[in-house]
Protein 1
Amino acid sequence: MGRRVVIAAILLLGIHQAWDLYAHRPLARPPGVLVTNEPQQREPTHSAPIVRDDFTLQPLADFEFEARVLLVSRYRWDAESALAPYDLGIGWQRMSDTAVIDRLALSQSARFLSWRWQDAPPIPADEITRSAANVHVIPANAMIARQIAGLRSGQRVHARGVLVEASRSDGWRWRSSLRRDDGGHGACELMYVESLDVED
């Protein structure tokens, strides 16, 4: 009896993993720029802090983007995952073009979005930096968390929210970048996402 239960559990886990891979398979796109607009950043409409459990979020800027999803990663074990469980890699302008993306090896790990190429980059390296971002997503509610969890590479999304600096009473802090042309540590956007529309 015990052996049958173990076998059934393994089969169910395999089915679940296979379905997860199928549900999150990349969305095929023909070559061509998918998103022409840059993200929009403005002075925050509301400056009052947002309290989320043990975290206080200080608004730094209103932020809105339309972009192509490059990658989505789920984090569970790092110090930041209680606040921002997902990282969303996004691209716009020529970083939303399949012809460019197919010539890059994209990866997401340790809260960074990275890219590599063979021989020469398909577009200038500084343009890649200016036209892509890794967004640490703080979902405003459970529905947005489910939407982020279900995203597929290649989809086009439109998000609105606030770039924030997060803090905790023990002195821990995490601050969003406010630039699109920076790279390395501190260059990612920390965004409290208030609305998300999948435009496909």
Protein 2
Amino acid sequence: MADTLKLEIVTPEAVIYSEEVDMVTLPGSEGEVGIYPNHVPLMTKVQAGELVAKKNGTGKEGAEEILAVGEGFAEITGDHVAILTENAIDSTDIDEAAAEEARAKAQNRLKEGGEISEAEAKALTQAILYSEAQLKAKRYRR
């Protein structure tokens, strides 16, 4: 039996995260999903939101790493969680002002209306959700 999970978060640009963790909480399409070692195999849609990776083993006791993730998919097995997403960032690397600005720009573009295709509207909505996820992740401990 596995005591930990290998958590991997992959975007089109890079592997954002690849470490052993004790537990993962991810934003699923039906709400938060808590994943421990030996979880039943599962494929699920990931919503834009905060992902929490808990590490209790070596290092700081009860350490948590907070990441913001965009929409994507997760494959879960007994000892592995693989997340494929367009966007992901560690909360320590988030520029709060830039996230606020990106959210405001996307909201303004949606409000303007005009010639917005369905695909552009969806992309703007996802940009807003991802910006909000970044802000929540950055402010998680405040």
